[in-house]
Structures are given as structure tokens and as C-alpha cells.
Amino acid sequence: MNIGDRVRLLHGSEEGTIRKISSSGRIEVEIEDGFIIPAQKQELVLVHESEKKHFGSKTEEASTIETPLPISAPKDQGLYLAFVPINDQSLILYLINDSHHGYLAHTSEVHGSNHRTLFADKLQAGEAKKFDDRLLKEMDEWPAFLLRFIPIQQKLEKAIPAFERTIRMKPTQFFKHLSKAPRLDKNAYVFALEQTTKELDIRALNQDLNPINSKSEQISTKRPAASIDLHIEKLVKESKEMSNSEILRIQLEAFEKNLDQAIASGMDQITFIHGIGNGVLRKEIHKRLSQIQNIKYFQDTQKDNWGYGATLVRIS
Predict the structure, then answer these.
(1) Does residue 301 contact residue 263 with C-beta atoms inside 8 Å?
(2) CATH ID of 219-315, from 1.20.120.1760, 3.20.20.70, 3.30.1370.110, 3.30.710.10
(3) Which residues, other chains included, contact 136 with Cβ-Cβ below 8 Å and sequence gap of 6+?
(4) In sequence order, what DSSP letters do the residues of 146-206 get, joined into one string?
(5) Average per-residue pLDDT in the chain?
(6) CATH level 2 (architecture), domain 79-216
(7) Taking Cα atoms as reference points, which of 108, 95, 82, 103 lies closest to residue 197?
(8) Backbone phi and psi for residue 284, each to the nearest 5 degrees, phi listed first
(9) Low-confidence ranges of the chain (pLDDT < 70)
(10) What pTM was computed for the model?
(11) What's residue 305's pLDDT?
(12) Which of 164, 166, 20 is nearest to 105 (CA)?
């Protein structure tokens, strides 16, 4: 196998292109929508040109199906959050609308008082859309998910109320939800997001899906150190085989976690040591800081020691 080869996962139906091969044998495969998933060589099989010629690619096959599958849910049900396993490590997240109504859907991850949008788009009746990926081994560190749905009603009819759900996944709950995902026809961990179109009690709904019910669950108020070193070797034991995007994600999660703890514990300031490098981490940190209301200001600091490799954050 070489970089650029088309491959299929043996334990799933996903296909993609090899983007990186490490010395340890781990292979990074880019599947549709640009998601990168890790796999071992023995988990993959090459898709040969002769196979494409006779059977066509999955993308080509999918594009010829114009008539949607019949909607299986009753009229007032059918919105789901699904985690589809790609291998024993990786999951791809889907929003599924198996109802008779289209929705404006918005999904974000919650870090204390801060949110990051993962998906904001129309979700038509009978449609399933990918919006993120996650590693199973990091489940304890997954943020909460906030999902909001506004119905699209194009004719005059009885109003369908908008609703939202806030959920945090826990292993004891998560693995009980393995079933066949609607619209995808794949085994997945599936969570029904809507049970009725009546006025919804948001608190009761959130409680049903194991939400964040206390501040201690939302975010630890443990006071972080005055200076946080975000160099990857300070955050994880093994980083040699990580891709740049994976390293950046871990660094930003550590930044957000410690910033949230600093705000929650009443600290006046905190310093993040991000290094100089190519400037991507510094730029992303400054971008996020500029969007947070309870930050007085931030600036490059400790220039004698770090050049422009550290940022001081003053908290209001």
C-alpha cells in the first residue's frame, strides 16, 4: 500500500484514500467529507481499478439514487444523533432526520460557558449529514453536545415547536444504544432526540439523555496553574505518530479546558505557552480569545523567555 491508494475498511463499508503511512504501520485514511481516520494495514484492503470499472465507486453509485428511501418513523418522530464506528478506535457523528419535516439544525460542543459550532445547516426530511468525528478512547474528555432544531414549515399548518437537547456521553450509557441507524442502514450508537411534537419540557428531555446537571459535571473548578505549557510533549506521552491536525486539536482542548477552569475559579489572569512554530496555534488561540466576552484583553508576554511564544490572558 502506498500514499494515494484507494482502500476499503474490512470492518466497515467506508472507502477512502491513504494520506499518511507511519513507520509503526499506522495508516491515515481520508474518507468522504475530508475526515481522517487511523487504521492498521491489516484492517484495510485495496480497491483495484478493475473493481471500479466493473462495479463503479460508492460515490458514483450513490449519486445515481435520486428517489429517497421511504421515511420509517411516525409523523412526529425521527431526529437522531448517531455515532457510526469506522474501526475499533474512531467514530463519525451524524445528524439524522427520519421525520416528515425539514429542520434548521444547529449543533455545538459546550466547554463551560463557551460554545463551538460543529454544524449549522438545513436537515431535510429523510436526510443524514456527517458533522464531526471522535475517538472512543477519549470519551471521558468529550464535551457536552448542544443540539437545537427549528422546524421548516412551508405551508400553513399547526406550529411545531422548536426544541433543544444538551447531552454528555458516558460509557455506561453510550454502549447500550447500539442499533441499526435510520437512513444509514449501519450499526451505530443511536440516540433519539425527539419523542413528540408537543410542547417539550427541556429540563425533562435533557434529564432523559443524561445531561449535565451540576456545575461539577460541566467543568471542574480546580484552579489551574498560572502558566500552562501547550507543547504537545507536555500534554501526551506519545506524540510522534500524531498528525498535525490531531496535535492541534489536543492543544486547543487543553487551552479551552484550562481557560474555563481559570474563569470558573475566579483567576485574574493565566498565561498559555504555545511556542512560536508556524504560528497556527497562537493564531487560533488569539482568534478564540477575541470571541470570549469575559476576557479583558490578551497579549504576547514573557518575550525575554519565549519571544512571541506565550500569551497572557487577563480575565474580567
Answers:
(1) no
(2) 3.30.1370.110
(3) 85, 88, 89, 90, 91
(4) EEEEEEE--SS-PPPPPEEEEE---HHHHGGGEEEETTTTEEEEEEE--S-SSPP-HHHHH
(5) 78
(6) Sandwich (2.60)
(7) 103
(8) -70, -40
(9) 11-13, 32-35, 48-77, 194-221, 302-308
(10) 0.47
(11) 60
(12) 164
The 3-state DSSP class for residue 228 equals strand
Radius of gyration, alpha carbons of the chain? 22
Model pLDDT, residue 242: 83
- The Cα 206–Cα 218 span in angstroms is 14
Cβ proximity of 104 and 95 under 8 Å: no
Going by the DSSP 8-state scheme, the letter that residue 68 receives in this structure is P
- What is the structure's pLDDT at 215? 41
Do 271 and 305 contact (CB within 8 A), yes or no?
Answer: no
Q: What is the dihedral of CA 148, 152, 158, 164, to 10 degrees?
A: 0
